[in-house]
Design brief:
By secondary structure, the chain is α/β, with parallel strands linked by helices. It has ten helices and nine strands. Strands 1, 2, 3, 4, 5, 6, 7, 8 and 9 form a nine-stranded mixed β-sheet that branches. The longest helix has 17 residues.
């Protein structure tokens, strides 16, 4: 079973070699790695040119979502995933992913555990366990483990690719649309590492992310139930420095009853 990995990239020369080598360091031979670079001006293309097995293009694009969709259109594998250019897979995990899909023909989407690391690959924290479902995604979009998620290519044909108008939460929207139709399957092992560092956790980014999540809720017809309102309040508290006011109100309103 062939797996196609899509890597959108722009000026990630510092990290992208880790990403490439992590795809190479696997126990599965049928792997296609497609890198869609947005016209990087750093060392990215120099790194890419050192790996002849890659399918890669470097040209201006319409953003990360556009790069991902272009990669989807080029992919020839039965299983798809996207791995950002500063994240990486654990060694020898893709064989287990392929076997799971073979042994579970009803599985359309599979996720594993994930570890957050700093820019030097030092582990910070992780998420594990079978904790993703459609209702749980609605209640907390941040449980998405995008680098550790794999799905059948048929889903892209059925539902389309990612929403290119979204820049920070296209993964949440994509997996929410899948979850509305198919159950998530869990592979109980750590599959990937996600780099978490200053450039991708700023307050301005948190505010933009909050606005995009609200758009996704509206776009997908998600009602403003208490779990949704509680998440939006909590996210606002972080993004706008309102935690001293919002969190006590949330506790008084019974936030602890939200499904986990």
């Amino acid at each position: 079973m062939k797996i196609s990995i899509i890597t959108p990239s722009y000026n990630q020369g510092e990290f992208i070699e880790d990403t490439i080598r992590s795809v190479l360091d696997q126990d599965h031979d049928e792997v296609e790695h497609i890198v869609m670079d947005g016209g990087s001006t750093d060392a990215t293309c120099s790194v890419l040119s050192r790996y002849p097995h890659l399918k890669w293009t470097s040209e201006r694009d319409g953003g990360q979502g556009n790069a991902i969709n272009k990669g989807f259109r080029q992919a020839t594998g039965e299983i798809l995933a996207w791995l950002n250019s500063d994240d990486y897979y654990e060694p020898n995990v893709l064989g287990g992913v392929a076997r799971y899909f073979v042994e579970h023909p009803d599985c359309m989407i599979l996720f594993g555990d994930i570890t957050f690391v700093d820019r030097n690959r030092k582990p910070l924290f992780g998420y594990s366990g079978d904790s993703i479902s459609y209702q749980r995604l609605i209640a907390c979009p941040e449980i998405v483990r995008q680098p550790s998620m794999f799905w059948r290519r048929d889903l892209v044909r059925e539902l389309g690719g990612v929403d290119e108008s979204l820049h920070l939460v296209m993964d949440f929207d994509f997996f929410l649309r899948i979850g509305a139709r198919y159950p998530f399957h869990h592979l109980a092992r750590n599959l990937s590492c996600y780099r978490y560092y200053a450039e991708n956790k700023s307050l301005s980014m948190a505010r933009r992310q909050l606005r995009e999540i609200y758009r996704v809720y509206r776009k997908n017809g998600v009602p403003l139930s208490w779990p949704v309102v509680r998440f939006l309040l909590s996210k606002s508290a972080h993004a706008y420095g309102l935690a001293p006011f919002v969190r006590p109100l949330a506790r008084l309103a019974g936030a602890g009853s939200t499904p986990r």
